[in-house]
Write a structure and sequence with these properties.
The chain is about 80% helix and about 10% strand. It is mainly alpha-helical. It has a three-stranded antiparallel beta sheet. The radius of gyration is 16 Å and the shape is elongated. It starts with a strand and ends with a strand. About 25% of the residues are buried.
């Protein structure tokens, strides 16, 4: 069985930037969910839960970014999670349990666009990075 390992500065930088942004957003949403909820028209419990979920994800991204090489499957996992976040963001705005305010729509849209950018950069890093098959 062969495993594709990947490396490259684009991939590491994309993972690191995604990790920093995810960690900062996670802390913000976890700590300030109460005051943010009414401003955004989003349930504080939803914001807090999403924020708390982002913190271990950010730690994973930081770990992956620190590796010189790594199997491609964890990066594919990150790309998939990011794609799911974008889809969930759209669904939240269109079919969610709450009606976001204008500021809430801007907040969710900005997050979705940033996460889509990270997914695209990580995918590009996978495609462009050097690879080696290991037995």
């Amino acid at each position: 069985m062969s495993v594709k390992n990947v490396s490259g500065s684009l991939l590491r930088r994309a993972l690191l930037l995604d990790g920093v942004a995810s960690g900062a957003m996670g802390l913000l949403m976890a700590v300030a969910a109460g005051p943010m909820g009414p401003l955004l028209g989003l349930e504080p419990g939803l914001l807090r839960g999403a924020g708390l979920g982002l913190i271990p994800f950010a730690l994973l991204l930081g770990y992956l970014a620190s590796r010189d090489t790594l199997p491609s499957w964890p990066v594919w996992f990150v790309v998939a999670v990011n794609a799911l976040w974008v889809v969930d963001s759209v669904l939240l705005m269109t079919h969610g349990p709450t009606a976001p305010t204008g500021l809430g729509v801007a907040f969710v849209t900005a997050q979705a666009l940033a996460v889509a950018m990270f997914a695209a950069l990580e995918y590009a890093g996978l495609r462009r990075g050097t690879s080696a098959a290991l037995a």
